[in-house]
Structure formats: structure tokens, C-alpha cells
């Protein structure tokens, strides 16, 4: 009995055309990362469960994909009935010590702790790999998706925080975006807001609620704050601060007054002011930078600058984000290594590039030439010429069967080849190649050396 093929919800297959576009995104980001002197690493898809848990906050921990013990373990368990155990919700003891990675930052901190003696600090790394979230699939939100991260660790300098803004600006410009908005805030400013509101011990509760402001609106955020024990007077102070209108430096001046009694708040304001001043040395061509007092990314390990990027001209979620973490490696026994990093959401970037029709401007890699197969001696001559083409660095293939010409040209069209090359009996006798431009329909005949130079020039 045949089985209907399917894939898990929240995952996707990618065909050649989509993969060419995705590789364009990855290659573009990697080229920018390398330009700023970041180095590549990779980490395993699985991490130990205790490496991941407790790092992302209450909501993040619920989305970690846990892994059951292996089949060997289950075979050793007598009379084990998986379906019965699942129905009775008794699978918890069978969860292994492993989980699929939730992001690339915590695994990076673990990597640094394990390899500290081999790294030169500050260490700048980039990483392009998939991550997994046990989330409910919806538009722009997947259970398996790629993150493209760059982080620098082992430096407290806010120059790094400013430089990451420049990386965002250059990368999105190289991808073809005409404009993006980079939202900046500082976790210490959020802590100062909590202190000013009289709820310093409820910083996490405040951030989790404010982080939903764009999605659910002020009224429902206030309801959630109330449910978390934050009273109306404190809510009023919070919204008075985060709703302030003005340019970036006007917000800085407002906060200096609002945080007169908050040491951590004042430190956050000083850090933000320094980052904004450093950005004057980075001329931005694509990005508008906004000091957003409402930005409250929910990850608990952030301690300083926080970032979020949104496209201009289309309603969509964030295309990237990140922040500074002062002691994430300290969890793994290596304290006092401050780091800061950003992430690009490749899958969301792809979706928005499609919405903005940006891929039509992109020269995607493809096959340059298809050699027509006439069979017999002409097949041998074409096969020999194919080797010369590939040695010259020209992407080409020979149709494997001596089929009708209509079928072979149809194949060349589906492969999006630029040229169809023919070595028939006359061309074989003369040492020439017939070259048909499949875009214009023009055809010329050249000797083999000239044909190779012609293809290299186009």
C-alpha cells in the first residue's frame, strides 16, 4: 500500500529556484560578515538539555524541542507501549538529556567556554545554521528555520554595538532593500524603567508583557501587567516613559531626568548615548536608526544593547534582532566575557524579498550551456568539448540521451540555460560549435577556442 508523502508542520522543502535565492541571501550575509573580520564556526544540531534550559525565559523554555531517549533505551523497557504512555502523559521520564538547539547564541557561549584556550579575544564569529522551535506554525513563523548570526565576545567596548548596526545596514543594502528600520534600546534602560515604576523585582514580567505591545496593544498589555502583579500606578509610569515622543537624543535627555534615582538606568542611558554618538562615524545608506523605548526583547540573558530590524514598506514581523550579554559564558564556568551579537532571520528575509519583488534584481547562479546530443560520433565530440568547458569554469551539461531536438531544447529552457550548443556532423568536421542564445534567439558558429572565450565573456 502506497503512503501519501508529507512533511511535519512548520517545515518546508526547497526546490532549485528557491535554493538559489536562499543561497544568494546566505552568500551575501557571509560576505558582509567576512568584510567585518568575523570568522565561521558550526555547532551540533543537538545540545545537552541543561545547556539550553533556563536561558530564554519562561516562554522560550517551553518552545525547546526535547528529544526522547533512543530506541535502545525503549527496547530495554519491558512491555513499553508508546501510544499508551503518550495518552496518559507519562513520557516525561523518557525525555533524554538532549534537545534541538533553540538559537545559535547559547551554543556559541558553550563553544567559547569549551574552546577558550584556542581563541583570540575579542573573538568575532559568524554562524549560519538551522534552529528549531516547538512553536505553532503560522505566516512568517516556522518550527525549523535558519539563523545567520554574528557575535563578538571578550570585549566591553560599545564600538562593537555600533558596528553591528553598520553590519545590518550594509547587509540589507546588499540584499536589495531600499530601507529598513533598526530599533535600539538597552536592557539597563528597561531596568531603570522598572525601578522608576517601583517594580524593580518585576523587570522580567514587565519586559515579557511590553514585548507583546505591537501584537496585542496597550490595553491588553496593561491587563497582563496587572495579572503579573504590577499595579495601575506603576503601569502609568511605565507607559509615560516608553510612550515619550521625540528624536533619539531627546529621549536620552528625558531619561536622564526620569532615572535620577536609578543607577542602572543612568548607566543604560550613558551606554545608549555613546552608541548613538559612535554611529556618527558609520555613514548608513539603508537603515534608519530609532531609539525605541518600547523595545523589550524577551530573552533573559540580554544585559545591555538590544536590537530589532523591520522592513519599510511592508507589514511584517522583525527580520532580525540581538543584544549584549555580559556573562553568558559564566554559566559554563568562564566568567567576565561580555559579548554582543545580532541575528538575521533568513526565512523571514526571503518572504519579505518576495513580497517586495527584490529577487528579480538578483542575478541568480544557473547553468550557462546545454550541449545538444546528436548521438554517434557527434556525441563523443560533444562529450570531449564538455570537458573543455568545465575546465574553463563554465557551468555546462550534455543532454544524456539522443532525444528529439524539441525535447532537448525544452529541457534547456526548464534548466534556464543561457545557451544551447550544437556539434553536429558539419561542426565536428570543421572543429566548430553552433551557439544559440536562448534569450535572444540569435545563433552564431565559432571554432571551439573562440566559443569558450565567447561564453566566458557572457
Detailed description of the structure:
It is a single chain. The longest helix has 20 residues, at 16-35. Helix 9 packs antiparallel against helix 10 (213-227). With 458 residues, the chain is of the alpha+beta class. The two termini are 51 Å apart. It has 18 helices and 16 strands. It is 41% helix and 19% strand.
Give a quick set of tags describing it.
458 residues, alpha+beta, eight-stranded mixed β-sheet, five-stranded mixed β-sheet, 18 helices, 16 strands, 41% helix, 19% strand
Describe how the helices and strands are arranged.
Elements: H1 16-35, E1 39-40, E2 46-48, H2 49-52, H3 57-62, E3 66-68, H4 71-75, H5 82-87, E4 95-100, H6 105-115, E5 123-132, E6 144-153, H7 159-174, E7 180-186, H8 187-196, H9 203-210, H10 213-227, H11 232-242, H12 248-258, H13 263-278, E8 287-291, E9 305-311, E10 320-325, E11 339-345, H14 346-355, E12 369-371, H15 376-391, E13 396-398, H16 405-414, E14 419-422, H17 425-430, E15 432-437, E16 443-447, H18 448-456
Parallel strand pairs: 1-5, 7-8, 12-13, 12-14
Antiparallel strand pairs: 2-4, 3-4, 5-6, 6-11, 7-9, 9-10, 10-11, 14-15, 15-16
The number of helices is: 18
Strand content: 15-25%
Helix content: 40-55%
Report the average pLDDT across residues.
90
Low-confidence stretches: none
The number of E-state strands comes to 16
Q: Main beta sheet, described?
A: 8 strands, mixed
First and last CA, distance = 51 Å
- Assign an overall shape: elongated
Strand order of the main beta sheet, please?
1-5-6-11-10-9-7-8
The radius of gyration over CA amounts to: 28 Å
- The helix-and-strand class reads alpha+beta
